Amino acid sequence: MSVAKKASHPSSTSMHTTFPTRTVVVLGGSYGGSRAAQVLAKGMPQGWRVVLVDRNSHMNHVYNFPRYAVLAGHEHKAFIPYNNFPTSSLSDIPSCSSHVRVQATIISIDDHRITLSPNLPGSQQSYVDLEFDYAIYALGSHLPQPIDLWSHQKERIVKSSLEPPEIPTYGGTKSEGISSLQERQKRVEAARFVLVVGGGALGIQFASDIAALYPQKHVTLLHSRRRLLPKFDDAMHEEALQGLQELNVRVILGERLDFESLQRTSATQGSSEPRVVRTLSGQEISADLLLLCTGQTPNTGLLRDMDPRTVSPDTGLAHVLRTMQLCVPPPSFEPHKLRADDVLHCLKKLTIDTEEEVEQSELSPSSLSVARTDIPATSPLSSTETLVEPYLCQKTLYPNIFVVGDAADAFDAIKAGHTSYYQAEVAARNILRLIPRDEKVEIAAGDDLGSELEEYAPGPPAIKVTLGMTKSIYEVNGVVGTKTDGVEDLNVAVMWAARGMPNVTEEEMFE
């Protein structure tokens, strides 16, 4: 049974409430989290609820952030209401028995509990501890600074004279997000020389949009590798390079930025001379504005705090089974590698069942799963057929926690919204399969669940990258091509329709 508690902040009064509803929490309401919540809500049996938690008041359509951070007039369209889920205040979560969404910051997670806090610092509202039966962790990754609206909360790794005044503080509301993107537009407009670092999709889109909208500006794209979009077909590199050169973007490949040159760079007050930075080989680049579009850091700190073994120390990604369940990789087979705390943790987590073992017939797939007609079919763009090859973790200490999207080490799947979407479908359908069994017998840590649940396998790489206002390049199922049918707002109405608002008007996008 799920129990929600209103836990006191140091200056508040403690309250305690229990109720019979069982809970699945979805942490993060972006592409993967919102899809998981949809699938769960549609198939959830009576007596169960979905609680969707996100720190933003609206879904942030981050794929459009690069365009809206350059081109004015469309920024409000990137923030889409969560119309499919009713909103609850943090204090009302304990008394809600239906599916609900709450805007809050996740402070911590344990195997059956999360702690939430209000977004605003200094708020008198209490923290809330919410116990759950299942969780889908869809908190993605920390975005690169040019599109990270929450960057004010982080310690800046790079500080230089190329940085304009601070962008207004963002607290998760649509109005603040609009203001933040508008401030970024002003930065771009004011700069004469723009340096974009990073030759992935984000860097290419920023460089090409700025060059297309402001042909008089000097735009340079610096990339450490010899190929743009290195995870995709060679033809994608060739098309991207040609498109950038057609827009007069200076492209420098195989070079790295000398970050020490940012600290040394300074321009005389009132001087018309541009600032100059350098690559490690000494090549000079004029730059008034620096856009660091390199790398995303997996947002797995909460999982690391819960159990450091669930997160790779090398990549920061969470270890998962093919079922998308969080797992702890087995220790080395060498006896001296088995640590005492591994044994203690296993003993702590394992449930000792003194009752007679359940008959095998009771655990057949037909009794474990929701009827197949109730579970949406796998999308043709994702591959989730049963796999025969072995994988490291056949069992998991966390059978009730699933991780999807950019936070998951998901078998070389590319980090993208559509990838998170399909992983979330697998996780949600597996929870719907587990619930009937969960109501018969508790799931013990260490259960072998592999044969009963759907397994995820990545599909072929797929991507679409804009090259200015109208041109784009794409790779889908190994086919590379170009299009010239682009529009300024990137057909954002399609995403609004996917979020339950078809035929949305321009006026309604301000909501």
Q: What does this protein structure show overall?
A:
This protein is an alpha/beta fold. It has 11 helices and 25 strands. It has helices at residues 31-43, 65-68, 174-190, 201-213, 234-246, 260-264, 301-306, 340-349, 365-368, 417-438, 493-498, and strands at 4-5, 22-27, 48-54, 59-60, 79-80, 87-88, 100-103, 105-109, 113-117, 128-131, 134-137, 141-142, 193-197, 218-223, 250-253, 276-278, 284-286, 289-292, 297-298, 318-319, 401-403, 408-409, 463-467, 471-476, 479-483. It has a 6-stranded parallel beta sheet with strand order 6-7-3-2-11-21, covered by helices on one side. Strands 1-10-9-8 form a 4-stranded antiparallel beta sheet. Strand 23 and strand 24 form a beta hairpin. Helix 1 (31-43) packs parallel to helix 10. It starts with a strand and ends in a 13-residue tail after the last helix. The relative contact order is 0.15. Residues 1-18, 155-161 and 333-392 have low confidence and may be disordered.
**What's the overall geometry?**
globular
The strand order across the widest sheet is: 6-7-3-2-11-21
Structural class: alpha/beta
Approximate strand percentage: 15-25%
Oligomer: single chain
Helicity range = 10-25%
Strands, count: 25
pLDDT < 50 stretches:
1-18, 155-161, 333-392
The biggest beta sheet is recorded as: 6 strands, parallel
Distance between the termini: 37 Å
Total helical segments: 11
Mean pLDDT: 82
- Cα gyration radius (Å): 24 Å
